[in-house]
């Protein structure tokens, strides 16, 4: 384990939160939670989705107001009334869900509302771009500061979000799942930046579901469960299985293993698929009951491949065969009609309508089937939604609950239910466990294996190599828009896949 300025006597509490309570309609999100954070430490906050981690941090950042409890910063009791006050107190936060404006450049997002100026009125764009480039370079991030944010990948947008928080030079920095979209190399660059910050006395509150990260970067760990404080102790004295048990209040097997399904007939075949600047002569096939993993670094073309096959982007060349027949897929509607589903890596922006209910989201792709003369048969819609809530164990008070209010793992299950409801038998899963907890991951893995056992052909794109190795029957490795390696289950190891991905 690597610690950051571990046990020096100079470390004193910069933040103390006591008895924090927060209620939402019908839900107690926080019930008397305590937390203290010291200068120069990485304090890890652990818990399953819905444990209260993000709610507690939103109270610290001024996004929510507490219903009860007390907060001290630098020994002074304070009542944080809003985000501006939190920033003035030296609190910065990197949210798991990105807050960037797509039409603005990376630099404009980083300095939004705080743009450097000349003569007090004119925005100094050259300085703004230079300052943003310096912060991004410190993160080891390959992101053009002047590029519109909408043109950046999810990982690049995540790095811009981190740069935005660092530009505020906070004394207390909250990182909520900061590596969920990052590659291994980018994660190590971020960890180096964290060590530089803690060396200067900055306190880091680090939220992650990746336990390996906790033991690499953390100093102390606090576990929350069901909105309550469970325990706080040093990472050095922590036991991995005990942490999992404390989070879930039950024993969980962290192992990842695929099923023992028999490969059936060919469902999908791609030949020489090409898209300028993204894909070059990509060919592969998927059979019924098979899980095909796709590994690769940021920019390798994995998501671009799924988008072209699903009809979200157009190909410049190549052929796509579905169940042996050549198909001309021009739009997602064509793909859905052919039984192809696509769980996108950004579930909130592309996979769900957050302001609509669980029922509405599940029924969305099949409204035509559920309608008669243009009127949706409500009883059939409810029955469909309730069946998937039951079968997938989606934790929600009812199918009328807004998708916005579900935890990340349950949102992911709703997106899966949506595609199962339209009878998709070819499923593309792009980062299917991004930002969800250990327990929810195990449920998603079980669902993936169950789907494969039922004859669904699955293409799983993941940046988590243990996930790819553990679940896949075959693994394809992409680099520079090409497939550069293929490994069967017996051959696939994390070391081999990484070496292939970097061209070693």
Summarize the structure.
With 504 residues, the protein is an alpha/beta fold.
Secondary-structure topology with pairs:
Layout: E1 13-24, E2 27-38, E3 42-46, H1 53-60, E4 68-73, E5 76-78, H2 83-88, E6 91-94, H3 106-110, E7 117-118, E8 122-123, H4 125-138, H5 154-166, E9 172-176, H6 184-199, E10 203-207, H7 211-217, E11 220-225, E12 228-234, H8 240-248, E13 266-275, E14 279-287, E15 291-295, H9 302-310, E16 317-322, E17 325-327, H10 332-337, E18 340-343, H11 347-351, H12 358-363, E19 371-372, E20 375-376, H13 378-391, H14 408-421, E21 426-430, H15 438-453, E22 457-461, H16 465-471, E23 474-479, E24 482-488, H17 494-502
Parallel strand pairs: 3-10, 3-11, 6-9, 9-10, 15-22, 15-23, 18-21, 21-22
Antiparallel strand pairs: 1-2, 1-4, 4-5, 7-8, 11-12, 13-14, 13-16, 16-17, 19-20, 23-24
Verbal overview:
The protein is 33% helix and 26% strand. Mean pLDDT is 86; it is low at 1-10. The protein is an alpha/beta fold and 504 residues long. It has 4 domains: 7-90 and 170-252, Rossmann fold, CATH 3.40.50; 102-168, no CATH class; 266-339 and 425-502, P-loop containing nucleotide triphosphate hydrolases (Rossmann fold), CATH 3.40.50.300; 356-415, no CATH class. The strands form 6 sheets. A 6-stranded mixed sheet has the order 6-9-10-3-11-12, with helices on both faces. The two termini are 27 Å apart. It is globular.
